């Protein structure tokens, strides 16, 4: 689990990031979870945008992504979800 201080640090790091995935009306599927998992391994920190036509609640989507990718939820801000997962081979971020 992330501490408050670590989440604050990750939020500041994620501030300038653009969402690289979008969840639309089909919701979250296995293929998306696989791709987000691979992207997390490369980047450690990423944003996922939830489109307005998504039928599922953003908290539900966030929970599905966290469970599927075994990552940490940093924050949900507006229609964006910020996820963090420590990379095994590509470590870039040093948490406080």
Instruction: Summarize the main sheet.
Output: 4 strands, mixed
CATH superfamily membership:
YhbY-like
Question: Remind me, CATH topology?
Answer: Translation Initiation Factor IF3
Uncertain runs with pLDDT below 50, 5 residues or more? Answer: none
Mean pLDDT: 94
Nearest-angstrom radius of gyration? 13 Å
User: Helix-strand pattern, N to C?
Assistant: HEHEHEE
Class by alpha and beta content: alpha+beta
CATH class: Alpha Beta
Strand content: 15-25%
Order of adjacent strands in the largest pleated sheet: 1-2-4-3
Q: Can you tell me the CATH architecture?
A: 2-Layer Sandwich
Terminal CA distance: 13 Å
How many structural domains?
Answer: 1
Quick one: overall form?
A: globular
Annotation, overall tally of beta strands: 4
Number of helices: 3
Helix content: 25-40%
């Amino acid at each position: 689990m992330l501490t408050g201080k670590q989440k604050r640090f990750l939020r500041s790091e994620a501030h300038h990031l653009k969402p690289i995935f979008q969840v639309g009306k089909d919701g979250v599927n296995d293929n998306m979870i696989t791709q987000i998992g691979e992207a997390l391994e490369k980047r450690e920190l990423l944003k996922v945008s939830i489109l307005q036509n998504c039928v599922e609640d953003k908290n539900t989507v966030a929970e599905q992504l966290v469970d599927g990718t075994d990552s940490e939820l940093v924050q949900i801000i507006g229609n964006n979800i910020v996820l963090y997962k420590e990379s095994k081979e590509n470590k870039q971020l040093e948490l406080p």
